[in-house]
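Hi everyone,

Forwarding the result from last night's run.
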Amino acid sequence: MERWLKGVKRVATSSNDAECSKTVRTENAATTDPNDATTTSSSTVSKTKKRKYNESYISFGFIDYNGLPLCMLCSKLLPNSSMAPAKLRRHLETVHPEYKDKNK
């Protein structure tokens, strides 16, 4: 029964429950210790992928503007997450379908 209650905060109704909830709170405090190196180091690591501009993106109609893709046809500045070739191609085919078969 205690493994189901691990991590659950309970309200004490009797003296036995008060002792039990006190131990549960101490276990919770021990698992979420702010000074623990494993919790702080994993939370500060950035998991976003920064893409870099590639010269082949000019075939989709995009140039590099301070590390971000800028559409030459509509002057729209896209976020770094949109720098994947599939997303650039999708922009070209949906927003500018008349230019999708043209070369550079």
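Strands lie at 62-65, 68-71.

Cheers,
N.
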